[in-house]
Design goal:
- This protein is of the alpha+beta class and 221 residues long.
- The chain has 4 helices and 10 strands, in the order ββαβαβββββαββα.
- 25% of the residues lie in helices and 22% in strands.
- The strands form 2 sheets. Strands 1, 2, 3, 4, 5, 6, 7 and 9 form an 8-stranded antiparallel sheet that branches. Strands 8-10 form a two-stranded parallel sheet.
- α3 runs parallel beside α4.
- The longest helix is centred in the C-terminal third of the chain and has 19 residues.
- The chain is globular and about 50 Å long.
């Protein structure tokens, strides 16, 4: 497993109180979402965000709120059939968290009422390495899938956390890559570009960042 250093988004000048990335509750929730997606011991790609654990408050988000439910069932997207967070299926509320799962070994999205949000997808050829064949060097990451899904996750977290009142207004983000050596070789990222496809994704991301109107495009698979 590669657990990249946590990115902390300081929303105030106060020093971080995370005390490092050792947050057992957060890690256990990531395991839970990987479990419902049947991606335990499978190549998996995880995006996760949680409020500072000192201000993580059960009930901070109303999981029955139409706004919250809509964000989970219709997460932000840039285009149809993109590398998005739509995990399909009906949203199910269980023990203080709301979750959606699309089939097995594909995608899952979960939200806790304290503001923790986690997206898990296969890191194989059906998502993170879409359109990239398994080579003698192992899995080859699709950089467009990485950029688009990460941007959309950050936007989903921003919208979900907009109404939270946190005693320590700081959000921790994690990007986790797990079990990426199914053939004994580590994952790599392409140094070449599918320029037409990558440029369209980058154009949509820039439009999203600028808040400009954008057209939803259907992309051929």
């Amino acid at each position: 497993m590669v657990d990249l250093p946590a990115f902390r988004s300081p929303l105030s000048p106060r020093p971080s109180a995370f005390g490092g990335v050792d947050d057992a509750e957060f890690a256990a929730r990531i395991d839970s979402v990987a479990g419902i997606a049947k991606l335990v011991d499978e190549p998996a790609y995880v995006l996760a965000a949680t409020p500072n654990r000192t201000s993580r408050t059960p009930g901070a988000l109303d999981l029955n709120s139409p706004r919250v439910t809509k964000l989970v069932t219709e997460p932000p997207q840039l285009r149809n059939f993109g590398f998005d967070l739509d995990a399909g299926g009906a949203a199910q509320a269980v023990d203080g968290w709301l979750r959606r799962v699309e089939g097995e070994r594909y995608k899952a999205l979960a939200l806790w009422d304290d503001g923790t949000v986690i997206f898990v997808a296969t890191a194989g050829e059906e998502f993170l390495c879409w359109g990239r064949q398994l080579t003698e060097h192992g899995l080859l990451m699709n950089e467009s899938a990485l950029v688009e899904s990460t941007y959309l996750f950050a936007e989903l977290a921003r919208r979900l956390h907009a109404g939270l009142r946190l005693t320590m207004p700081e959000i921790e983000f994690r990007l986790v890559l797990r079990d990426l050596m199914p053939e004994g070789s580590p994952i790599s990222i392409s140094t070449s570009r599918d320029t037409g496809f990558a440029d369209e994704v980058e154009e949509d991301v820039r439009a999203g960042l600028a808040g400009a109107p954008r057209r939803i495009r259907r992309m051929a698979s």
